Amino acid sequence: MKHTLTISALALMAAGAAQAQELRFMCYQDGVECEAWADAFATFEAENDGITVIVDEVPYAAIIESLPVQLEVGEGPDLARVTDYGGLARFLLDVRPHVSDAASIDARYGQSLAWSRVGDNAADGIYHIVDQLTATGGFANATLFEQAGVDMPGPGATWDEWAEASRAVRDATGVDFAMAIDRTGHRFAAPAISYGAALFDDDGHALVIDDGFRAFSEQFVGWHADETMARDVWAGAGGGTYQDAAGEFINANLVMYYSGSWQIGRFDRDIGDAFDWVATGGICGPAACTGMPGGAGIVGFNHTQHPEAVAKVMEFIARDDVQAQVLARTRNLPANANLQAEGIAYEGVSDDVAAALTAFASSVPGFSDTAFALQGYQFNRAVYTTIPARITQAIVGELSLDEALERLEQDVADAIAAAQ
Amino acid sequence: MIGAVRLIYEGAFNLFEGPMRWLQRSLGTQRMVWVFLLPNLLIFGLFTYLPILLNAWYAGTSGDRILLGDRPWVGAANFATLLDCESYLNPNSCRRDLFWRAVHNTGWFVVLQVGFMVLLSLIAALILNRNIPLKGFFRAVFFYPVLLSPVVVALIWKWILQRNGVLNAGLDWAGMGTVNWLLDPNWAFFWIVFVSIWANMGFYVLILLAGLQAIPSDVYEAAEMDGTPAWRRLFRITLPLLTPTLLVVMVLSLIRAVQAFDEIYVLTGGGPGSATLLLIQYIYDVGFATRPRQFGLAAAASLMMAGVLMVLTLAQLAATRKRGEDG
Amino acid sequence: MARVELRGIVKDYGAVRAIHGIDLEIEDGAFCVFVGPSGCGKSTLLRMIAGLEEISGGDLMIGGERVNDLRAAERGLAMVFQTYALYPHMSVRQNLAFGLENMRMPKDQVAARVAEAARMLKLEPYLDRRPRALSGGQRQRVAIGRAVVREPRVFLFDEPLSNLDAELRVAMRAEIAGLHRRIGNTMIYVTHDQVEAMTMADQIVVLRDGRIEQVGAPIALYNRPANTFVAGFIGSPRMNFLTCTVTARDAEGVTLADVHGRVLRAMVDARTLAEGDTVELGVRPEHLHPDPDGYPVEIENVEQLGGESYLYGRTPDGTALTAHLSGQTGLRRGARAHLAIRPDLAHVFRADGSALPRLRLGELEAAGPGGPVAG
């Protein structure tokens, strides 16, 4: 009797495993991303009998802090929505062997796919599908420009021109700040590349302090000395602490703010009709007009019991129609080349937002390869946190710029060495 | 309601009494001690001693992996890189310059914060120990900040000190120039000392008040009959009799100053630059805030700090023991 | 050396009056003891003289000078505290010298005074010790020494012996009395112990509830207590009281009847009494003696000390009666004794507690059963 029960239980489990494949998807959202995907998966489940995807929504902190620990000890979900591809690279599942049309995915998501092809990962692997491309870029308070009677620099304008115009507006209107850049190396890298920084050496190792990097660093420190830049943002904190200036921009206390496309939703909500604002698009330096790409994407993990099912989900996520439908709801920029070309019919957005989304979307194709390379660099977090720590020391005068840059190079090298 | 609670309470005792008596009979009074110590030992072992050992182990490894098995053993390399300096007096000459900046900052912070804290707490306690009007109110005023979370303390002061903060608004209104308090390295350092004194002083005032009140009033009456001038009463009677308490306050505040972190981290984030970067924040930055996480380096730095704290704690124990003998 | 005079001294704590207008003169060089039960205000009064408590009303004169508004030290007084109040962190030498250093006295002079006080109080071996290394008696001597070195006009003692054991108390009593004889300063001494008061004082001030009940020399208070309170307080064990009715009075005294109609005589000036008045007859335990015709008493307890005996009993109407007999007694618990009261040793108090003047003091004569009654 006992025997029979055991056998039938085992048989049941085996049958269940064969038929119903349950995938767990750990998701965080800035807006409605998880809801949009959960709805989209209804279509997926209808098309793929026997596979269910369960969306567990968690805070972003859980993705950053507890997911890596879970993975390290061999636990965790089958899929997740993440941003740190380099840090998680060794846990990611290459779905290329399991998808029906890998070439098509390559063609449409090519640039962003490289972000997780780091370390020991395959150079042609498909590890993630970006569902929220972000781009760094500027926002300008159009109303202040109007009040000051200063012409706003147009597309293709340089950092110098923006600095000069912003100072003029600040002085004319009496607001506190002309320009501000978020306190992170991710933001800093975009103008640095535009000033000609190569960042990587010939072997693909960061961080190289070359003339381009030095030129922008000097410019940036100088802009703090002459108060073009809001001192509070970078000098107001220490170490690698992130600090933004969105509050100052929303309060119309800042003329030009260099941040990124993820601020659009917040500005739409918090600024409302208080003043007109525009996205600047790419801002140019002597070498380029690049911003930094970035973004969240969906990954599968190599400890999953059901790699084929995960691959099916990834291929579904990558589909043009699915992306178009989800992104229209989430109001995110597409990483999908087809959709970048076609544009997305965002649902119910204001003209300001639509214009900004378009401006950011159209700036992405102009981004430099170095920018994409940095975003895909396994140790980019070391670069992102070390730049503010060291550059701030130069800003407040603790170190000379030369000393700061020397330390910066050394710190990144140490961090990378320590991680290997 | 209270009756029910009492019943449960008594019931719980009765429930344990039988087994405990049986245990004591079978183990004997001597070994019974361990039965009561065991739960505590387990908890301490698991959550205090084991982590200390793990920390020591981590200090000898490198890499950004969490599992010890994945971490390469590097011996004393983490300590060596921390101690790699041409001159310990010049952080710029050190390989880990930020560590030494943090050491220097922490040193100055400890000296200034403890010095002024003890002095101000003493003055406050001496005043509050007198029969002044609204004594209870003022005692509460000094003590309430202690009840606040350090984060709340920092946010309150940030609100006061920021560019458009209360202090600048006041200065502006008074026609004096405004200062961007937290963006100037010297001012920022002044304010972290000030705020941490403000936040912690009440605790020490309380201890000193207790110490003052433990001085028998008849000694003061005898001094009064002896015609003791006020300054001589302070220096020859009050301070000598308060010395053991002062010593405890000093060592306690010293240890806490070395460990200062939360309110400062929230107030200045260690900035501007590294002007207010203290040791704990350095450890946190290296181990957790920056990627890749350098657990080994952080563990080595925290072990070195633990050594300093150990010395301070031993000093405190010696001080309290001395006090016990005096009392 | 000074005369201390209190004129209408009052102490109020908020709305509560603790000291109700004390008038008192203490002669220069007198040893004056304030005595009374706890809470009577004796310590408060002393602390007001010392300057540790503010004086709410009246004048405090020391050496003819009004000192109400002078600080404690400026009044030229020194005080010995019940708890000694030594400076715990200073050596005996420093304790003695501290007050002198406060006055900026030259160092050699300080040393000389400290040496003199140490010699007088036999403290020389302990000069470098801290108070906690001294015995109770030694600490007390340091406390006294600290007062002595300042050479005050008046010494104040606040129950200085109450923390000592019985034996030391007797020794220190003698020492303080000896000190007074040697240096002859005015001393004001507070105690709740009437034995200390009786043995040391030139002048006893009996206080109750912030008022003076009686002032006088010890024996005068013993022989002629002004009222039942003083009568009960001075003398140990306390005086026995029997409620009686006046049945007759004459030039020799008064005839009384107790509740059972037993007849008692007392030699007091009874002119202010009328027949039928209710009075209290007071007799000290040591003035009761066994007599077959005496008062019947049921013995409840006997204390035999060898050289003397105490009987604790009750009269038939339940009044407690204590007798102090010299020598030993064969009486046991439960026995019935007959105790007689000599008329020349009896006190009579009016219903309001005040005493009638005694016509004869039997205490001055050889006491004994049926002894002569002298005028």
How would you describe what is shown here?
The complex is a heterotrimer of chains A (420), B (327) and C (375). Chain A is an alpha/beta fold and 420 residues long. Chain A is built from 19 helices and eight strands. Chain A folds into two domains: 22-133 and 294-349, D-Maltodextrin-Binding Protein, domain 2; 135-292 and 368-419, Periplasmic binding protein-like II (D-Maltodextrin-Binding Protein, domain 2, 3-Layer(aba) Sandwich), CATH 3.40.190.10. In chain A, strands 1, 2, 3, 4, 5, 6, 7 and 8 form an eight-stranded mixed sheet that branches. In chain A, α2 links the parallel β1 and β2. The longest helix of chain A is centred in the last third of the chain and has 19 residues, at 401-419. Chain B has 327 residues and is mainly α. Chain B folds into two domains: 2-44, no CATH class; 77-326, MetI-like (MetI-like fold), CATH 1.10.3720.10. Helices cover 76% and strands 0% of the residues of chain B. Chain C folds into two domains: 4-232, Rossmann fold (3-Layer(aba) Sandwich); 237-361, Beta Barrel (OB fold (Dihydrolipoamide Acetyltransferase, E2P)). In chain C, a hairpin with a 4-residue loop joins β12 and β13. In chain C, α2 packs across α3 and α2 (92-102) runs parallel beside α4. Chain C is elongated, with a radius of gyration of 24 Å. The two termini of chain C are 40 Å apart. Chains in contact: A-B, B-C.
Structure keywords:
heterotrimer; A: 420 residues; alpha/beta; D-Maltodextrin-Binding Protein, domain 2; 8-stranded mixed β-sheet; B: 327 residues; mainly alpha; MetI-like fold; 2 domains
Can you summarize this structure?
Chain A is built from 19 helices and eight strands. By secondary structure, chain A is α/β, with parallel strands linked by helices.
At CATH's second level, what is the architecture of the largest domain in chain B?
A: Orthogonal Bundle
The overall pLDDT of chain C, averaged over residues, is 89
What is the number of helical segments of chain C per DSSP (H or I, 4+ residues)?
8
Task: List the uncertain runs of chain C.
Answer: 367-375
Strand fraction of chain B equals under 5%
Round the Cα radius of gyration of chain C to an integer and report it. 24 Å
Radius of gyration of chain B, whole Å: 26 Å
Shape of chain C: elongated
